[in-house]
Design brief:
Helix content is 44%, strand content 22%. With 158 residues, it is an alpha/beta fold. It has a single domain (3-156), classed as Maf protein, CATH 3.90.950.20.
Amino acid sequence: MDFKEIIHILQERRKTISTMESCTGGGVANAITNCEGASEILKFSAVTYSNEYKIKMGVASEIIDKYTVYSMETADEMSKNITEFANSDYGVGITGQLNRQDPANPVGEDNVVYISIYDRENDKYYRETIEVHKESRKLNKEHVIDKIIEMLETILKI
C-alpha cells in the first residue's frame, strides 16, 4: 500500500498530518505529495537533519542531551512538536542512522530508526523502532516509509 488510501481516509475524516524528518530527509513528505489530495491533509513538513534545527523546531535540548538525538524520546518530541507547530491532527517524527555513523553525534546504534506518530486528539504516541540493513540509503528510507504506512493503517484502522 502507499499513501493514496491513507490520504483518502484523512480527507474523509477531515484530519491532517505533519512531519518532522531527520534520516528520511523528507521522504515521507515526498511520498505523501506524490498522491492526489495531499494538499488537503499535509499541513507542514520539516527536515531537521541537525540537532540545531530539531531544537529550533521545539525538541528540548535536555532530551537530546539525556537520551541522544537517536532515541525514541527525541522522536516523540519531534512528532508532538510538529503537530503543535502545524496545528495538525497527527505528527510523524523520525530519527536514526542509515548506514553511516554521524560524526556530530557519535552515540547511538547504527542502522536503527525511531518512529513516533503523535495523535493529538487522543494525546497518544504510536512508536516503532526498526533496524535498517538494506544496501543503500534509498532502500532504507523506503523501508522506513513502508513502516510508517503500516503504522498509519493501524492507527486509522484501515
